[in-house]
Amino acid sequence: MSNTPFSEPNVDATMRQITWRLIPFLMLAYFIAFVDRVNAGFAALHMNKDIGLSPEVFGFGGGLFYLTYVVFEIPSNLAMQKVGARIWIARIMISWGLVSAATAFIAGPTSFYAMRLLLGAAEAGFFPAVILYLTYWFPAAYRARIISLFMVAIPVSSLLGSPISAALLQTDGWLGMAGWRWLFVLEGIPAALLGVIAYLYLPSSPREVNWLGAAEKDWLNRALAEERESKGQAAKVPLATVLSNGYVWAAAFIYAGASGASQCLSLWQPQILKSFDLTDMETGWLNVIPFAIASVAMILWGLNSDKLRERTWHTAFPLALLAVSLAVAPLTNGVTALLILLCIAVAGTYMMKGPFWALTTQWLGSGMAAAGIALVNAVGNLGGLFGSWLLGRIKEATDSFTLGLMPLAILSAVGCILVLVLRRAQPAAAAFDHP
Fold first, then answer.
1. How does DSSP assign 372-429, residue by residue?
2. Over the range 223-246, which residues count as b (16 or more CB within 10 Å of their CB) and which as e?
3. Which of 73, 113, 295, 401 stands the most exposed, by the fewest C-beta atoms within 10 Å?
4. To the nearest whole percent, how much of the chain has pLDDT over 90?
5. pLDDT higher for 44 or 208?
């Protein structure tokens, strides 16, 4: 790559080799994680009626996932530093797979709440663990495209998972069990199996692998060490310092808008589309479209951010798209117009993620990375908790799904403004950007 800050001739080949060795497996793992996190959205097409879940109860229960996800996020990421990435990521995947499969046996609101809380606790730490893990392998100049490539698994999970989940609903009656119960079982088992494979496959650091030569290892370790030293961030900082850092909390608030929107749309979009009197399979295929567009846009946007060496506007612009599309949604009255707005909104939520996390890891540096990334992700995901609950409550009060999206539109707009304000207030935030 012409704009790489390193002149060694093996840099591009080394980066490609690391990417092909690690990213496909991590993408597959995150794909399964998100399928298990949001498959309740498709199950709800029949589950809610079967066990008596109102829109508000479903929204609150769906959001409860993020409560325990937040509580256990930082402890989980700190534990990963002690036991190593391979063991901890494997533990997380096995735990969430078993809990997801067990959700098949819920019988009402209380058990639904309990399983969503357990699922959040089980999955807590996976995403920040992977983001931290990637900083052990990829210098800053490569992170936006790598993070975007990894995180494209989120929209792909809905792109591929939607028709699969819709098809699994057709298993109704197998062995006397409802189709939505089979959906949880058959989509939970792969996560547990992948957890076992993760333990056997993932290396904890570049020093462990035999597929990099001595020269590649030396270059990579030197490049990452020089980045840390150049910013004076080699030493770890106390957790209390991270918790009192205003930029950490600002980043968490910025992330809350996009994260809350992506979580809510993944969970609620099947019901929003089904409200236009579509069949289950029609709902499944239409639900694919926004996530297909987002998958492509996310990768291209991350590549453009790295190419232009710019993070701030690449984070702010998608947030603006998201806010405007959600704000306009209540003015539509047909499935086509709403689907176009959903395409824009979903694309916005995922386009911002690669540049945002590349920017955030620059703000934090290695000293704050473990706790800081976990805190930003955890608090940011509270947008999913409150957004899902508010959407359900507003839907029940007004009989309108789109009005329930208004809190997320406001939060995204404020986040967009905050990104631009931070660029002026924090020189380090814009240090990577060219004027």
1. HHHHHHHHHTHHHHHHHHHHHHHHHHHS-TGGGGHHHHHHHHHHHHHHHHHHHH-GGG
2. bbeebbeeeebeeebeeeebeebe
3. 113
4. 20
5. 44
